[in-house]
Amino acid sequence: MHRLSVHLGLITLAALLLASCGASQSASQAPTAAAPAPSAASEAPTAAAEAPTTAPQAGATQAPAASGEKIKVRLGVFPTPAGEIAAFVRDNLAAQEGLELELLELTDGVQLNRGVVDQQLDANLFQHKPYLDDFLTKNNLQLSVVAPVFYIRLGIYSKNVASVAEVPDGGKVTIPVDPSNGSRALRLLEANGLITIKPEVTGLVKVTDIAENPKHLEIIELEGAQIPRSLEDTSIAVINGNIALNAGLNPNKDALVLEAPEVGLKGGLAVIIVTAPGHEQDPGIVRLVKAFHRPEVKQFIEQKYNGVVYFVAG
Predict the structure, then answer these.
(1) pLDDT for the residue numbered 1
(2) Strand locations in the chain, DSSP E?
(3) What is the DSSP letter of 67?
(4) Do the Cβ atoms of 124 and 116 come closer than 8 Å?
(5) 207 contacts: CB under 8 Å, gap ≥ 6
(6) Half-sphere exposure of 125 (CA within 13 A, CB side)
(7) Residues 285/122, Cβ–Cβ less than 8 Å
(8) What burial class does residue 170 get, using C-beta atoms within 10 Å of its C-beta: 0-12 exposed, 13-18 middle, 19+ buried?
(9) What count of other Cβ atoms lies within 10 Å of the Cβ of residue 62?
(10) What span, in angstroms and rounded, lies between the C-alpha atoms of 11 and 80?
(11) Burial class (CB in 10 A: 0-12, 13-18, 19+), 108
């Protein structure tokens, strides 16, 4: 059933991209001789090239463009905040870097990674490296990290208690099931005095690594996107920042506690641009990184997210 779901998701993804390309044939025509047609990537689908007769390949539109010619890059993103940041880049900065940025928004990380593997996308922007490493190991796939863009803070949320201190004995706590974010969640619970982790554990932490649980908390692991829906039935929930924003939560107002910024900034938890192996230096990908690392992006992030999202470059 899972394979079928992923397969159908990829068919839908391809259909969206082909439909998007076809809708904008009048806007521009793919070059016929000098260079392959540019390809693009980003959160809300926007296209300006003829629909290919076969599925486009990740590097097919990355050849150096002629002077003044834009390179089209297809970028897959989560809607918030990656999609909002990518839309800002598309609308304000991409042209200055010689890019035509096409965005496709999805909330399924598996589809976003499969889209790059299957060459329906040139790159994606939604995950940190520990999440990517776990995905690649489990699926026996290869993708390449290109560059970090931003870090977003994890938080503890509740609709049933007003502070961490009010969490009752035997209270239910939901955390992400994926190893990297589950480990972050457990460390955040430990930092706020709810549990203690075995001191000898230095890498990713699992529920079985809990040494002390003085409030006898029932820790429930869920897919990240499902956790906001658990708020009514739990004492607290540990939610990724992007998922909290997509669920309509305001981390600065709604979170009981937010992860300390240095945890992510020093811990390799920045959200990264990912592409297919061998395409890291494609001209379109190089231009994509330059666009996302401009100072205007830093200013946009600081003004819009007010300490919940941090700009990361290099």
Answers:
(1) 39
(2) 71-77, 99-105, 123-128, 144-152, 155-157, 172-176, 196-197, 210-212, 218-222, 236-239, 255-258, 271-275, 309-311
(3) T
(4) yes
(5) 182, 186, 219, 221
(6) 35
(7) yes
(8) exposed
(9) 25
(10) 23
(11) middle
CA 198, chain centre distance (Å): 30
DSSP state of 204: S
Of residues 170, 171, 189, the one with CA closest to residue 181: 189
Give residue 65's pLDDT.
Answer: 52
CA torsion through residues 270, 276, 278, 283, sign: negative
Which H or E element spans position 16?
A: helix 2-23
Question: How many whole angstroms separate alpha carbon 290 and alpha carbon 190?
Answer: 38
d(CA 178, CA 71): 35
Predicted local confidence at residue 35, as pLDDT = 39
Tokens standing for residue 162: 């007003």
Alpha helix positions (H), 150-211: 179-191
Determine the pLDDT at residue 211.
98
In this prediction, residue 67 carries a pLDDT of 54
DSSP-derived secondary structure letter, 278: T
Q: Report the C-alpha gap between 303 and 219 in whole angstroms.
A: 35
pLDDT < 50 stretches in the chain: 1-62
| pLDDT, position 313 | 87
Q: What is the pLDDT of residues 203-227, one digit of tens each?
A: 899 999 999 999 999 999 999 999 9
Q: What domains can you pick out in the chain, each with its CATH number? A: 2-152+269-311 (3.40.190.10), 155-258 (3.40.190.10)
Name the residue with tokens 């589950």: 182
pLDDT score of 267:
85
Residue 267: φ, ψ to 5°: -105, 15
Give me the phi and psi of 77, to 5 degrees please: -145, 155
